[in-house]
């Protein structure tokens, strides 16, 4: 079995007559035990009860802790546990999460993120108010590795409702995180699971959904996305895979648009995310002083997209790196 599927994996419909809850909160976990307790507790504090909510941790053979014991201790019998027989990678673990879910609505809640009180009732109300929506999501806070507030997300609309021109907006750049969004199981059954890449695979999925279904939204801040150096996001920066993956994703997403708009949008999409990556690279250098990551990122960027801004911004970043030893020498304490 491929760790990174080349086409959307099939999600089997539920055909038995066993009880089906309204919600399935599926928590994929891999070496995030230091955060997992907070994740579980954030769900339990708004637990709708076993008849309405399935809560399960799906462990991809973590090596940092005894996850089953942690789930048993924190979940107190309310949270189920399932472990892969071997490490299958994030995409296959998400596929397992969805196939094991039984609820009408599925929330893939990563084991390092959190939800705030009112999340599940608010999203339930969104689905009930906008029954044609295939997915629904909210605004969110970014939090640090320690769990402290960092900054708030973009607000897509001042009032709740169906997002307009959502596929076109998603084609420009990524606009949301896993923790914020819930998808109807029937949508995954029709469209399949995540595939193609391990960085940006969710961007493609939300666009795939937007092509077929409306997406409902609330500006209420009801979720918390944690940024930390052990995440898949940060690991991809170390080898430039983030940029290569995003190049693949943009090509697929733009193909969902009418042909007349594709050429213009592919250039705009790549320009936006390359500019964004350059800003992240600059901030990373200021914070970490890791020149190897900077070199890899800039080299990969130049293989994907180049214009005057990219050349100028890259030159300024590299100049900072090359002048750093001199600056250190003249500013060091005698």
TrEMBL record:
InterPro entries: Glyco_trans_2-like, Nucleotide-diphossugar_trans
Key words of the record: Transferase
Domain Glycosyltransferase 2-like, chain residue ranges per copy: 24-168
GO molecular function: hexosyltransferase activity
SUPFAM superfamilies: Nucleotide-diphospho-sugar transferases
Source species, domain of life: Bacteria
A Pfam family reported for this protein in Swiss-Prot or TrEMBL: Glycos_transf_2
Protein name per its UniProtKB record: Glycosyltransferase
Gene source species: Flavobacterium cellulosilyticum
């Amino acid at each position: 079995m491929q760790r990174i599927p080349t086409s959307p994996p099939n999600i089997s419909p539920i055909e038995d007559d066993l009880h089906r809850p309204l919600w399935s909160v599926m928590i994929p976990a891999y070496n995030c035990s230091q955060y997992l307790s907070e994740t579980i507790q954030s769900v339990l504090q708004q637990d709708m009860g076993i008849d309405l909510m399935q809560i399960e941790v799906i462990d991809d053979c973590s090596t940092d802790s005894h996850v089953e014991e942690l789930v048993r201790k924190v979940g107190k019998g309310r949270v189920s546990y399932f472990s892969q027989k071997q490490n299958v990678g994030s995409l296959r673990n998400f596929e397992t999460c969805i196939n094991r879910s039984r609820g009408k609505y599925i929330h893939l809640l990563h084991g390092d993120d959190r939800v705030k009180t009112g999340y599940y009732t608010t999203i339930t109300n969104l689905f009930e108010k906008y029954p044609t929506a295939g997915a629904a999501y909210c605004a969110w806070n970014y939090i640090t590795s320690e769990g402290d507030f960092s900054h708030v997300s973009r607000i897509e609309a001042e009032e709740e409702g169906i997002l307009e021109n959502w596929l076109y907006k998603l084609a420009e750049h990524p606009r949301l995180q896993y923790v914020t969004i819930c998808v109807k199981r029937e949508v995954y059954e029709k469209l399949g699971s995540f595939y193609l890449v391990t960085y940006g695979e969710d961007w493609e999925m939300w666009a795939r959904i937007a092509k077929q279904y409306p997406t409902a939204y609330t500006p209420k801040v009801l979720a918390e996305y944690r940024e930390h150096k052990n995440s898949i996001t940060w690991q991809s920066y170390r080898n430039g895979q983030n940029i290569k993956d995003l190049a693949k994703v943009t090509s697929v997403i733009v193909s969902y648009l009418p042909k007349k708009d594709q050429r213009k949008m592919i250039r705009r999409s790549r320009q936006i995310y390359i500019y964004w990556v350059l800003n992240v690279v600059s901030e990373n250098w200021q914070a970490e002083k890791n020149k190897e990551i900077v070199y890899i990122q800039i080299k990969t960027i130049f293989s994907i997209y180049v214009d005057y801004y990219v050349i100028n911004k890259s030159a300024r970043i590299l100049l900072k790196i090359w002048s750093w030893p001199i600056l250190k020498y003249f500013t060091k304490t005698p």
